[in-house]
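Q: How would the C-alpha coordinates look for this protein?
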Amino acid sequence: MANRLSQIATRTGDNGTTGLGDNTRVSKDSLRVHAMGDVDELNSHIGVLLCEELPAGVRELLVEVQHQLFNLGGELSIPGFELLKPEAVALLDDALAEHNATLPRLAEFILPAGSRAASLAHVCRTVARRAERAVVALGAAEPLKEAPRQYLNRLSDLLFVLSRVLNRMNGGDDVYWKSERMARAATE
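A: Here is the predicted structure in C-alpha coordinate form.
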Protein backbone atom coordinates (compact mmCIF):
# COMPACT_ATOMS: atom_id res chain seq x y z
CA MET A 1 0.00 0.00 0.00
CA ALA A 2 1.30 3.43 -0.90
CA ASN A 3 2.05 5.97 1.81
CA ARG A 4 -1.12 8.09 1.71
CA LEU A 5 -0.10 10.71 4.28
CA SER A 6 3.23 12.10 3.23
CA GLN A 7 2.78 15.42 5.04
CA ILE A 8 0.61 16.11 8.09
CA ALA A 9 1.22 19.83 8.68
CA THR A 10 0.21 21.31 5.33
CA ARG A 11 -0.95 24.70 6.66
CA THR A 12 -3.83 24.59 4.16
CA GLY A 13 -6.32 24.70 7.04
CA ASP A 14 -4.94 27.90 8.51
CA ASN A 15 -7.75 29.83 6.81
CA GLY A 16 -10.47 27.87 8.63
CA THR A 17 -11.19 25.35 5.87
CA THR A 18 -10.39 21.68 5.47
CA GLY A 19 -10.18 19.37 2.50
CA LEU A 20 -12.68 16.58 1.96
CA GLY A 21 -11.89 13.27 0.29
CA ASP A 22 -13.21 14.56 -3.03
CA ASN A 23 -10.72 17.49 -2.92
CA THR A 24 -13.36 20.12 -2.16
CA ARG A 25 -12.70 22.53 0.68
CA VAL A 26 -15.29 23.31 3.33
CA SER A 27 -15.41 25.41 6.48
CA LYS A 28 -14.16 23.62 9.57
CA ASP A 29 -17.46 24.48 11.24
CA SER A 30 -19.59 22.81 8.55
CA LEU A 31 -22.10 20.13 9.52
CA ARG A 32 -20.04 17.56 7.62
CA VAL A 33 -16.85 18.37 9.52
CA HIS A 34 -18.73 18.30 12.85
CA ALA A 35 -20.06 14.83 12.02
CA MET A 36 -16.62 13.62 10.95
CA GLY A 37 -15.08 15.00 14.15
CA ASP A 38 -17.67 13.40 16.40
CA VAL A 39 -17.16 10.01 14.72
CA ASP A 40 -13.39 10.41 15.09
CA GLU A 41 -13.79 11.31 18.78
CA LEU A 42 -16.00 8.26 19.31
CA ASN A 43 -13.38 6.03 17.70
CA SER A 44 -10.73 7.52 19.99
CA HIS A 45 -12.85 6.89 23.10
CA ILE A 46 -13.36 3.28 22.01
CA GLY A 47 -9.57 3.05 21.71
CA VAL A 48 -9.33 4.10 25.37
CA LEU A 49 -11.97 1.51 26.33
CA LEU A 50 -9.88 -1.12 24.54
CA CYS A 51 -7.05 -0.39 27.02
CA GLU A 52 -9.18 -1.99 29.75
CA GLU A 53 -9.47 -5.67 30.62
CA LEU A 54 -12.32 -6.95 28.44
CA PRO A 55 -13.79 -10.33 27.54
CA ALA A 56 -12.24 -11.55 24.29
CA GLY A 57 -15.54 -11.40 22.38
CA VAL A 58 -16.19 -7.82 23.48
CA ARG A 59 -12.65 -6.83 22.51
CA GLU A 60 -13.02 -8.36 19.04
CA LEU A 61 -16.36 -6.63 18.58
CA LEU A 62 -14.97 -3.24 19.59
CA VAL A 63 -11.98 -3.61 17.25
CA GLU A 64 -14.43 -4.32 14.41
CA VAL A 65 -16.45 -1.27 15.48
CA GLN A 66 -13.31 0.87 15.23
CA HIS A 67 -12.77 -0.28 11.66
CA GLN A 68 -16.39 0.43 10.78
CA LEU A 69 -16.20 3.88 12.37
CA PHE A 70 -13.17 4.56 10.20
CA ASN A 71 -15.27 3.53 7.20
CA LEU A 72 -18.03 5.83 8.41
CA GLY A 73 -15.60 8.73 8.73
CA GLY A 74 -14.34 8.03 5.22
CA GLU A 75 -17.90 7.97 3.90
CA LEU A 76 -18.63 11.30 5.58
CA SER A 77 -15.47 12.80 4.10
CA ILE A 78 -16.55 12.01 0.52
CA PRO A 79 -20.06 13.31 -0.23
CA GLY A 80 -22.15 10.68 -2.03
CA PHE A 81 -19.69 7.83 -1.37
CA GLU A 82 -20.58 4.61 0.46
CA LEU A 83 -18.11 2.75 2.67
CA LEU A 84 -20.30 1.64 5.57
CA LYS A 85 -22.36 -1.33 4.43
CA PRO A 86 -25.73 -2.53 5.80
CA GLU A 87 -23.94 -5.69 7.01
CA ALA A 88 -22.13 -3.53 9.57
CA VAL A 89 -25.51 -2.53 11.06
CA ALA A 90 -26.61 -6.19 11.03
CA LEU A 91 -23.46 -7.16 12.99
CA LEU A 92 -24.45 -4.68 15.70
CA ASP A 93 -28.00 -6.07 15.75
CA ASP A 94 -26.60 -9.56 16.27
CA ALA A 95 -24.25 -8.38 19.03
CA LEU A 96 -27.11 -6.54 20.74
CA ALA A 97 -29.26 -9.67 20.75
CA GLU A 98 -26.39 -11.84 22.01
CA HIS A 99 -25.32 -9.59 24.87
CA ASN A 100 -28.81 -8.47 25.87
CA ALA A 101 -29.83 -12.12 26.30
CA THR A 102 -27.30 -12.47 29.14
CA LEU A 103 -28.65 -9.53 31.16
CA PRO A 104 -31.52 -9.23 33.63
CA ARG A 105 -34.38 -6.91 32.70
CA LEU A 106 -34.02 -3.36 33.90
CA ALA A 107 -36.59 -2.35 36.50
CA GLU A 108 -35.05 1.09 37.06
CA PHE A 109 -32.80 3.57 35.31
CA ILE A 110 -29.09 3.06 35.82
CA LEU A 111 -26.37 5.62 36.31
CA PRO A 112 -23.36 5.78 33.99
CA ALA A 113 -21.12 4.25 36.63
CA GLY A 114 -19.75 1.02 38.02
CA SER A 115 -16.46 -0.40 36.88
CA ARG A 116 -13.96 1.71 34.99
CA ALA A 117 -14.57 -0.27 31.78
CA ALA A 118 -18.36 0.09 32.13
CA SER A 119 -18.02 3.81 32.80
CA LEU A 120 -15.84 4.22 29.71
CA ALA A 121 -18.46 2.34 27.68
CA HIS A 122 -21.02 4.88 28.92
CA VAL A 123 -18.77 7.74 27.78
CA CYS A 124 -18.53 6.05 24.38
CA ARG A 125 -22.33 5.73 24.34
CA THR A 126 -22.85 9.44 24.93
CA VAL A 127 -20.31 10.37 22.25
CA ALA A 128 -22.05 7.95 19.87
CA ARG A 129 -25.34 9.76 20.51
CA ARG A 130 -23.66 13.11 19.79
CA ALA A 131 -22.18 11.71 16.59
CA GLU A 132 -25.62 10.41 15.65
CA ARG A 133 -27.13 13.87 16.20
CA ALA A 134 -24.43 15.39 14.01
CA VAL A 135 -25.12 12.85 11.24
CA VAL A 136 -28.87 13.51 11.50
CA ALA A 137 -28.24 17.27 11.20
CA LEU A 138 -26.01 16.69 8.17
CA GLY A 139 -28.64 14.40 6.62
CA ALA A 140 -31.26 17.14 7.01
CA ALA A 141 -29.06 19.52 5.04
CA GLU A 142 -27.50 17.17 2.46
CA PRO A 143 -28.33 13.75 1.02
CA LEU A 144 -26.89 10.91 3.12
CA LYS A 145 -27.30 7.18 3.03
CA GLU A 146 -29.20 5.52 5.91
CA ALA A 147 -26.42 3.25 7.17
CA PRO A 148 -24.39 5.96 8.99
CA ARG A 149 -27.38 7.10 11.05
CA GLN A 150 -28.53 3.53 11.71
CA TYR A 151 -25.03 2.40 12.65
CA LEU A 152 -24.56 5.13 15.24
CA ASN A 153 -28.02 4.54 16.69
CA ARG A 154 -27.37 0.80 17.11
CA LEU A 155 -23.84 1.39 18.36
CA SER A 156 -25.02 3.65 21.15
CA ASP A 157 -27.56 1.00 22.19
CA LEU A 158 -24.85 -1.65 22.07
CA LEU A 159 -22.49 0.44 24.19
CA PHE A 160 -25.23 0.75 26.83
CA VAL A 161 -25.68 -3.02 26.82
CA LEU A 162 -21.91 -3.58 26.92
CA SER A 163 -21.61 -1.25 29.92
CA ARG A 164 -24.01 -3.57 31.74
CA VAL A 165 -22.04 -6.63 30.61
CA LEU A 166 -18.78 -5.03 31.78
CA ASN A 167 -20.27 -4.13 35.16
CA ARG A 168 -21.02 -7.82 35.68
CA MET A 169 -17.63 -9.02 34.45
CA ASN A 170 -16.15 -9.49 37.93
CA GLY A 171 -19.34 -10.06 39.88
CA GLY A 172 -20.48 -6.44 39.91
CA ASP A 173 -23.84 -4.96 39.00
CA ASP A 174 -25.39 -1.85 37.54
CA VAL A 175 -25.55 1.32 39.63
CA TYR A 176 -29.24 2.07 39.97
CA TRP A 177 -30.73 5.54 40.11
CA LYS A 178 -32.45 6.25 43.40
CA SER A 179 -35.68 7.89 42.34
CA GLU A 180 -37.25 9.78 45.23
CA ARG A 181 -40.64 9.71 43.51
CA MET A 182 -40.53 5.94 43.07
CA ALA A 183 -39.33 5.44 46.66
CA ARG A 184 -42.28 7.50 47.94
CA ALA A 185 -44.69 5.56 45.74
CA ALA A 186 -43.35 2.25 47.12
CA THR A 187 -44.04 3.33 50.71
CA GLU A 188 -47.58 4.60 50.07
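DSSP finds six helices and two strands in the chain.

Residues 116-141 form the longest helix (26 residues).

Upvote if useful.
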